[in-house]
UniProtKB/TrEMBL annotation:
Pfam families in UniProt: PfkB
Record key words, sorted: Kinase, Transferase
Gene3D superfamilies: 3.40.1190.20
PANTHER family assigned to the protein according to its UniProt record, in alphabetical order: 2-DEHYDRO-3-DEOXYGLUCONOKINASE, HEXOKINASE FAMILY MEMBER
GO molecular function annotations of the record: 2-dehydro-3-deoxygluconokinase activity
GO CC field: cytosol
Record PROSITE patterns: PFKB_KINASES_2
Name this polypeptide is given: 2-dehydro-3-deoxygluconokinase
Record-stated family: Belongs to the carbohydrate kinase PfkB family.
GO biological process: D-galacturonate catabolic process; D-glucuronate catabolic process; DNA damage response
Domain spans labelled Carbohydrate kinase PfkB: 21-301
Amino acid sequence: MQALDLLVIGEPLGELQWADKHHINVKFAGDVFNTAIYAKRLFSELNVGLFTAIGTDRFSENLSELLREECVNADCVKVLENATLGLYGIELSDTGERSFTYWRNSAAAKRMVEVHEDTFAALIQQPPKYCLFSGITLAILDNTSREKLLAVLSELSNKGTKVAFDPNYRPILWESQSVAKWWMEKAFTVANILLPGVDELELLFDINGVETCNDLLSKFDIEEVVYKADDDGNFIYVNNEQILHKPFVPAAKQIDSTAAGDSFAGAYLGSKLVGADYDAALHNARETAGTVVQHQGAIIAHDICAYLKNNALK
C-alpha cells in the first residue's frame, strides 16, 4: 500500500438528478468521495485515497473507472460479490437547496469496516497524514462497525495521523436524534480537526450560534474547529480560541449546494497538507465552495476546477 496524504472513509453513491420529467442524469457523488475528488484535482501532488466497499454492479464498475480517471488511490476499496453501490436521488428548489431520497439498504459500503481487517492493519503500519470521516460514514454502519472504526481512528491519531471529522448530520439516516448525538460525541473524542456546519450542530444538539457550539465542543480535546456558519461566515478555533473569522460572501449565483461543504473540506484539508496557513486554507475552501454552488451536480467540470486552481487559490 502506498503512503497516503489524505484517506477519506465513507460511501460513494450514484447520484440521480432529473434532467426533465422523463429523463434522469446519473453521476457519482457522496460526501467524502466529493471531498477526495476536489482535494486531488486542486492539489494533484497529493496521494488521496478512498476507503470503502463497492459491489459488482454496473454502477460500481463505472465508479472504479472514475477513480482511475481522477487519480484517486483505490488500494482501500474492496469489491464485494453480490453487492451494489448505493444510490440517491436529489431534487433542487429554485434557490439551489436540496432534498434527498436514498436507495442504499443493500449497499456494499455498509459492510466496509467488517471486510477491511487487513487494510486496517496496513494503515496502522503506514498511517496516512490526514484521515477524514463523516457523520454519514457512521450513520450507515452498525454499532459494532462504528465502534471498530472509531477505535482504529483513535489508534491512527496516536500514531500521528490528523483525524478530521465532518458531522454531516442527516436525520433520515439515524435511528433517532439521541442515537446520532451519542455517536457524534464519540466521534468528537477521536477528531483532531472538526468541520461542522453550525446549522447541523444546532439541529442535533438544540443549541444556537457559534459561541454556543464552541461551548459544547470545548469539553472535547479537538485541536482545530472550522465552522461553516452560513450568513455569519466562517470561523476557525484552535484549542478553543477563535483565531480567524471571514464574513459571508454570497456566490454570484447559487444553482446547487449539494457539494458545498464537501468541496470546502477538500480544499481546506488539501491546502493544509501542502503547507498553507489557516488564512490561505480558509480562503481556498471558501473560493472552492463558492464556485461549486454555481454549477449543477456535486462534481463540477475539470476546466472549471482548473480555472479555480490557477486563478483563485492562494
